[in-house]
Amino acid sequence: AAGVIQSPRHLIKEKRETATLKCYPIPRHDTVYWYQQGPGQDPQFLISFYEKMQSDKGSIPDRFSAQQFSDYHSELNMSSLELGDSALYFCASSLGTSGQETQYFGPGTRLLVL
Amino acid sequence: DQQVKQNSPSLSVQEGRISILNCDYTNSMFDYFLWYKKYPAEGPTFLISISSIKDKNEDGRFTVFLNKSAKHLSLHIVPSQPGDSAVYFCAAYNQGGKLIFGQGTELSVKP
User: Fold this and answer.
1) Which tens digits make up the pLDDT trace of B48-94?
2) Which of A19, A75, A94, B33 is at a distance of 20 to 30 A from B68, taking alpha carbons?
3) A63 near A44, Cβ under 8 Å?
């Protein structure tokens, strides 16, 4: 079965640069979520989209923005990168937003900011 | 403020025995819980879920128990296999529809 696809898998950037992470949800899934996982931490919710509209927002810095496109893929744009942005970024997708759906996670993008 | 807590950072179990991973939550309004398994360099993989209207859900070797009065859930794996060695995350949906994760428990199953 098709899973969530994330690209790139690894990314190295320098401080103050920008980065764009991409997420392709499971076919027919209409909801996309972004999470950030720092070293030794649990995944922290950043933002989600349902049917191309932002549905919820978590602890996402103002330097970050995201959107969901007509084909349901999503991009997380990160500007003015800081050392503390180094983390694993996961995308997840689900069908619907009832609060009882299963979120299926992608393999993650490992971002290293030097 | 950790709303979902996994107080054991690690657990070691012998192959063939039962693994019990515990999770506590603080908000009695949480009504749907999930367990994920995570290998290094991979994303979390969904294992099993439970709704607050149930107290048990079973899927093969995995069983999740929910004790609403104690705000506690546990994941039982029996029999444990070396391939089960991974980090296990408990997660709950809050009222806003956000999935809140625990800190994770690293399970090591010894042959």
Assistant:
1) 999 999 999 999 999 999 999 999 999 999 999 999 999 999 999 98
2) A94
3) no
- CB within 8 Å: A42 and B101: yes
pLDDT digits (tens, 9 = 90+) for A55-105: 889 989 999 999 999 999 999 999 999 999 999 999 999 998 788 889 999
**Shortest CB distance from A90 goes to which of B43, B95, B97?**
B43
Nearest to A100 among B32, B36, B103 (CB): B32
Q: At A15, which amino acid appears?
A: K
**Rounded Cα gap, residues B36 and A104, in angstroms:** 10
How do beta strands B72-77 and A19-24 pair? unpaired
Measure the CA–CA gap between B94 and A48, rounded to whole angstroms.
14
Residue partners of A102: CB distance under 8 A and separation at least 6 = A94, B34, B46, B49
- Chain A residues with CB under 8 Å of B40 CB are none
